[in-house]
Amino acid sequence: MNDMRIMERDVDVNEIKIAARGCQVYYADTHAIKDVDVDIEDKTVTAFIGPSGCGKSTFLRCLNRMNDTIDICRVEGEIRLDGEDIYDPKVDPVQLRAKVGMVFQKPNPFPKSIYDNIAYGPRIHGMAKTKADLDIIVEKSLRRGAIWDEVKDRLDAPGTGLSGGQQQRLCIARAVATEPEVLLMDEPCSALDPIATAQVEELIDELRSQYSVVIVTHSMQQAARVSQKTAFFHLGNLVEFGETGQIFTNPVDPRTESYITGRIG
Amino acid sequence: MTDANMSKSGAVPVPRKSLLQPDARTKRRNSAEARFRAYGLAAVGIGVLALVMLLVSIVGTGSGAFKQTYLTIPVHLNEAKLDKKGDRELANLKKVTTIGYAGVLKTSLNDFLAQEGIEIDGLSDKDAGKIISKEAAATVRNAVLADPDLIGTTQDFTLLANGRIDGYYKGRVTMDSAELDGNVTPEQLMLADALKERGLLKTKFNWAFLIAPDASDQRPEAAGLGVAILGSIYMMLTVLILAPVIGVAASIYLEEFAPKNRWTDIIEVNISNLAAVPSIVFGILGLAIFINFAGMRASAPIVGGLVLTLMTLPTIIIATRAALKAVPPSIRDAGLGLGASKMQSVMHHVLPLAAPGILTGTIIGLAQALGETAPLLLIGMVAFVREYPAAWSPESGLFGEPSTALPVQVFNWTQRADPAFVERASGAIIVLLIFLVAMNAVAVMLRRRFERRW
Ligand SMILES: Nc1ncnc2c1ncn2[C@@H]1O[C@H](COP(=O)(O)OP(=O)(O)O)[C@@H](O)[C@H]1O
Ligand SMILES: [Mg+2]
């Protein structure tokens, strides 16, 4: 225990944004997530790592109830956002998703203009009264997505015409446009080249100042680079959860160590 | 290098091959490919040939329907015959039937021939009068009833020539065939030629074919498509309004909202099967439901439209579901992930992307409906209708007046004895094809429009 303390990074202790307790997920008869407890802090980047098929995406999708769209998927246990159970029957997943934004593995801009891509969320949530308000939101979001300079002259151009990295940053900008409190990212860089990846990683680090970010990644280097907390999943279990520095340098569980050293996965 | 490796591994050394010398395998493969291409080309050729033959035959026989022979003669509207009392009372004028007017026409024509000095040996006055269509008497009668002051005057009228005379100028009737034909004599044809020489008998573009209602068996020269075109338009409007709305709503529900369970599976299978149900079955269904049960009028375009809507629904639903399926799920996720409701996600993002596919399906369904005959026969649209159906009337409601439809008119005309109707039927097919091509052109244009929005 003492060794662990030495390796600990200098992280502020933040308040807990999302708390999961005894979370189980079933796809029909497949038990995909087994009894997961995890606390996700505010203003922190939390990375989910683990071998392919271990349930990282499944768990991530529990956090904004995207799993509701899969008929055969069943979620049990308790997930609280700011102390409120998000699986409470009274909760409308639509409202939840405005608070917990999501960026997907493959960049998926709408086949509309760059402007309309960003403006869509604010429009459906009634966040802008006038066109001028909307313009401001669009510019602010694009700036936060670190893509403003590249697209400011062609806001009317189709979002699908951008390069892969630009598209992904557009999607991030689109997600932050609705002013979420948590940003979920499922392998956001897996379709990007190294330069675009670096840009997105830099962006994630900046987003940390305002949001709680949860990122799924299959790249351990990426987890080490961008996250403060890391959770290691294996076969649906949360094997280990802790400070990123500790997980990578001094894992407690032998399975974590095997994975990090490249023996599983 | 290769040789060395070969001998080391103990394999039989393969002689070095030249790239310039194709080996036996390659040759065989190439010839198989050439054969395959030839088969493909032959298949395409057969298709094109069939199409060309169809077009040549239809246009060959049908183009005549768009021209019609008319003759212009001065008609003396004899007061003694048309208004015995001389008071121009409409009720009395109406008592004179077309038979009376036919007599006036015959007399006027013979007087005119005598005056012009046209004389054909062996042609009686009665036979001379027969070169004018029976329809002409009605034309003149209508003109007189519209303006009774014409009575007593002499007016130039342009009147339809008899169908056989018309056929003579279209090559259907010859001097030889007229010899054997009870309905026309060679002398009548000679008279027609004499009138043509003087420029009194002309072949003109036949607007009446597109506008006039159908005519009885004895006057093919007067038969037109007016009622059929109106009926078809009314039906298409009904289908156009109902089928896409119902079809797209059903598809969206099934594809995006319905839970995937046994019931939706059964519905899905049934819809697919419905697409293969013979159209005449839909006719029986329409007869049972709309006419016998709901008490709607037989022969009404609204009933035809409803039946055709039922018939096109499966086509539209299948095409729409395929189009919705083809929209990448990531677009739905993107919408939902931003906090859009399922309906918003579908309406704002999925539907616009699926629109070109939906449109194609709808137009295919509509084209199918336009050419459909069998179910319409069952609901009585085959009736002989002379009155233009009104789009709306207080007694019969929207699209409720008896009508017929283009394909049914084709069917109807092919049943008739006079060969002139064969030409009319082919002409009607040309009109039908023009409608279809126009609809497809609209579909292509709309598709382009939607697709250009990236
Ligand atoms: N839509 C689904 N239907 C059924 N099984 C699924 C579905 N999505 C994921 N699974 C299963 O759940 C397990 C976890 O998958 P996932 O969360 O995608 O893993 P990861 O993101 O870690 O690679 C896998 O065994 C996978 O087969
Ligand atoms: Mg995954």
Automatic annotation (TrEMBL), chain A:
GO terms for biological process: phosphate ion transmembrane transport. Residues 11-260 form the ABC transporter domain. PROSITE patterns: ABC_TRANSPORTER_1 (PS00211), ABC_TRANSPORTER_2 (PS50893). SUPFAM superfamilies: P-loop containing nucleoside triphosphate hydrolases. It comes from the Bacteria. Pfam families: ABC_tran. InterPro entries: AAA+_ATPase, ABC_transporter-like_ATP-bd, ABC_transporter-like_CS, P-loop_NTPase, PstB-like. CDD domains: ABC_PstB_phosphate_transporter (cd03260). The keyword NADP does not apply. GO terms for cellular component: membrane. Keywords: ATP-binding, Nucleotide-binding, Phosphate transport, Transport. GO terms for molecular function: ATP binding; ATP hydrolysis activity; phosphate transmembrane transporter activity. NCBIfam families: 3a0107s01c2. This is Phosphate ABC transporter ATP-binding protein.
Automatic annotation (TrEMBL), chain B:
Its main location: membrane. It is a multi-pass membrane protein. CDD domains: TM_PBP2. Keywords: Cell membrane, Membrane, Transmembrane, Transmembrane helix, Transport. GO terms for biological process: phosphate ion transmembrane transport. Residues 229-443 form the ABC transmembrane type-1 domain. One of its GO terms (cellular component) is plasma membrane. The chain crosses the membrane at residues 38-59, 233-254, 274-296, 302-324, 350-371, 425-446. GO terms for molecular function: phosphate transmembrane transporter activity. It is found in: Cell inner membrane; Cell membrane. Belongs to the binding-protein-dependent transport system permease family. CysTW subfamily. This is Phosphate transport system permease protein PstA. It comes from Litorivita pollutaquae.
